[in-house]
# Entry
Amino acid sequence: GQSLEQPSEVTAVEGAIVQINCTYQTSGFYGLSWYQQHDGGAPTFLSYNALDGLEETGRFSSFLSRSDSYGYLLLQELQMKDSASYFCASDLTDSWGKFQFGAGTQVVVTP
Amino acid sequence: GAVVSQHPSWVICKSGTSVKIECRSLDFQATTMFWYRQFPKQSLMLMATSNEGSKATYEQGVEKDKFLINHASLTLSTLTVTSAHPEDSSFYICSASQGQLYGYTFGSGTRLTVV
# Structure
């Protein structure tokens, strides 16, 4: 089976940098994805790491280390609209598709 | 970008009735779609994999006779919650993908309340 661990909540001020860590235990691993979900809304895709290293997309970056079974999502120049839940998710099969999600990290951005 | 439409966005039904939820990929074809359920303040839990033209694959603990999935075309999958009970009240979300580099696009979700 697979499990993904991430912190339950992080609070930071506008303009700050937040790092959300995700550690995983898997019987097989094919990649780590990150999704953002605002209250009452559907998850939206942020990034996907299949290989070790850093992927940068605007203010958000994601990192993966397969040897450490660890990844993180980095949110820079925080804005109020970044207040949301962030989920890491791991592929469950080698045919890109079904995910297991972490419990989610609630990011609260304060003025 | 890829758009996945889900309908209805919310529904209230009486206990014992059935509810059908539709998931459509609007600008791409999806041979596979996934159905998730999310209870308040919890994570998304995969319920089943919907395969176009064949039977759905259900995750352990999900009753296939209660949650009927039909994937009759490359752009439409439906989830029918049969004989709904209050404990089935949840947020149901579908997802589909154009391919690995695009990630998975989620539908807007359906909030089901069974009274």
